[in-house]
Amino acid sequence: SIVQDIQGNMWIGTYGGGLNKLDPRTNKITRFQHDNNNPGSISSNAVWSIAADHSGKLWLGTFGGGINVFNPDDNMISHIVNNPKDAGSLVDNNIIRIYIDRGDNVWVGSTKGLSKYDRQKREFKNYREQDGLPNESVFGILEDDEGNLWISTNKGLSRFNPQKNIFKNYYSQDGLQGNEFNQNAFAKDGITGQLMFGGPNGFNVFNPKRVNVNKYLPPVVFTDYIRYNTDNTGGKPIYEKGISSRDSLLLTYKDNIINLQFSGLSYYNTQQNQYQYKLEGFNKNWIQLENNNSVTFTNLSPGDYKLRVIASNNDGLWNYKGASLFIKVTPPWWKTNIAYSFYIIFFAGFLYVVRRSELNRREQKARIRENELQLKAT
Question: Is 365 helix (H, G, I), strand (E, B) or coil?
Fold first, then answer.
């Protein structure tokens, strides 16, 4: 990594030789290397990335030693490293890339994702795969003219909107040279605004402003319906036809497993279409399916349900109307309303018989008592 400071000095980071300063006026090279006996030295000789902030300080990304903030005025160094007990600390000490954006914000790419440093709080906001990053090995970071960050990784290229904290990922099927990119293989044309990222299969050059967004709102349709019934002792699936033209399903309690498949009808890069579902009467919240386009339900209790499915296209544009399907599960005969009515009548009749027998017994006992009294009186 090579950076020129505001005085014209060239700062050179090496894979194992530490930090080197070249003064072009004197052609003198000054080396800064790790010294076990000097806690104020750089933390590692593997200086993989250098970035200069607006105050002139150099941010050194080292592989294995975290971040070193170097002040060229007095050669003082402060260290920022990972603390496993602190969620706001640097996420990883293996730093691959450091980038300073136009707002003087510090962005860090490591083997465990992307991080943004908050200088006032002295803590990091970390972004990983679960936050939308396609891969956690961040090789390159560039800012486009709109303020978005473009991030090359070991599994795709990502556009990150720092204001909305939203990632949009691109892969080989979008036209990239491949999903894998290389370290130090990225650049920005300051005149045209074009970005360049390279990998094992070549490199891509593009203008971020001309990256098309798919604005097609995908209709959602149900495509397949499979059920399993307890009467089928072999456990064979029953394939039902015509689900795309139906708006309801009628199931019996013996239909213990059902599988429904659906599709968002956007055919560009379908692997990135996303789905969510909610079974009203069972779920209160939407369930994220990512790009999985099927759901399976087992042993639904008798009752009425409404299955709602929504889908997005490859660029994350959601059709919130989606598709819906009413599902009714009928109970066994001994749990029907007629059966319950019979149970009530039977129980009421039983109570009546018991009560009538008790009254008869009391009356009989009273007559016997009365007869005994009469005999004693005579």
Answer: helix
